[in-house]
Amino acid sequence: MNNFMKLLAIFLFIQFQRALSQPNLIQQLCKRNRYQPLCATTLNLDPRSKSSNLQGLASISIDATTKKTNETLTYLISVYRSIGGGRENYEKYGTCIDQDYGASVDRYLPAALANLKAKKYTDAISNMQSVVGATGDCQNQFAGRGPLPLTQRNKAVHDIADMTTDIIKTFV
Q1: Which of 72, 74, 82, 150 is exposed most, by the fewest CB atoms within 10 A?
Q2: Pairwise CA distance, residues 56 & 50, whole Å
Q3: E-assigned strands of the chain?
Q4: What does the pLDDT look like over 111-127, one tens digit per residue?
Q5: Is 170 helix (H, G, I), strand (E, B) or coil?
Q6: Which residues lie closer than 8 Å to 24 by C-beta, 6 or more apart?
């Protein structure tokens, strides 16, 4: 029984240390990020973060960016359909849907995740910077002054994508 107790004590100690180290890893990572509160909140909300290393946290961040980008794309499609389309509206909303957010969801974000997994960090950064740029391109379709809900959504995607870019930069 004595050996069992020693093994149990060692196991519990390791589990305790591991549990303490994760918030510290997130805290250290987010401390160097321009979006510290967003970084900490985003990573801590995902249950996978409790057992993730730095690579895993970067992957979680890309997943969160993908979710936010998909939400905005869905919103854009909904608004475009509700206003009845038309050429002028298509030039604004259609560009955001097809070229900006569509490209982000279909190309840039999957490529960023693949490049992260392949340890091609510079390429992953470039992919994420394309997502950041897409938010500005969409906003510019409305001469910089889009409808307030769209402006807020563009900013939210911009910030989380830029935050993710900062996280991936820690590998370079």
Answers
A1: 82
A2: 10
A3: none
A4: 999 999 999 999 999 99
A5: coil
A6: none
